[in-house]
Amino acid sequence: MRKFIIDTDTASDDAVALVMALRHPDIDVKAITVVAGNVPLPQALQNALYTVELCGASVPVYAGCAKPLLRDLETAQEVHGDDGMGDIGLPLKDRAPTAGHAADALRCLINDNAGDIFLVTLGPLTNIALALLREPALAERVAHCYVMGGIGSGHGNVTPTAEFNIWVDPEAAKIVYESGLDITMVGWDISWKYATFDAEQAAEIRRIGTPLAEFVVDIQATLDEFSKAENALPGFDLPDPITMAAAIDRNICQYQKRHVEVTTGGGLARGITVVDWLGVTGREPQIHVATSANRDAFVQLLKRCVS
Ligand code: RIB
Ligand code: CA
Asked: How far is ligand 1, taken at its centre, from the CA of residue 257, in Å?
């Protein structure tokens, strides 16, 4: 059993990634820490708590930061729905998180399991940055960190060059990327190329017929419409789940280690993950950047987790 901590701004694709980790026999989810992003923190918290309950799991869920370190919160409710879960009428309320702040939970669990924790981040990196600012030595005590964020090579989804998780809190991302944490970055380019689902591909998963199989498809209702209308995709894409798949089975993606910097400017200079592919900066490569993925292996893993 590998010990995972999952940090999430729980909306429709995050929820599928949570299901994968909670249902996989080799993964022991020690905690879920929640951050504002796709939806405001209270909603993200309820979405995470609902998903844990649906999986029949008992995992502590901690509330974290309600806004980025320095900037105002920008949500993505136009992408995932007002409730973040496709606005299909799920009872996403009245569940109680575990007491304590996410940043403190991260510190305690990482220190109590030094060297054994795999950290998977699915939202803005505010909670992670806060924990690292409080105790920089945490960076050496995490076995590996898988980040859904940024762009390896390709176009962004918030600006032509920026991906949502990094763009929402670029200062937090800069702190995390420069912290010494051993990071694998699965950018939105990987999702856009290897984790999209048209109507038939979505129906194939839903036809598995279990409550989880229907859940992981039905909550994509808003994302599906948005992806087709705005992202030039044939249907919804699943960036957090393909990142979780890489965390569960590293061979699902291929990687190259490069120096990566995060821009913290405004406008088009906000939240870019600048990948130094040719090494022209002469700076130490510090991030394993996903360059491709095995879509069939990803889909098979997803199907196994919802069957
Ligand atoms: O850009 C995609 C990322 O932003 C995903 O994690 C999605 O859930 C949103 O948080
Ligand atoms: Ca997310």
From this structure: 23
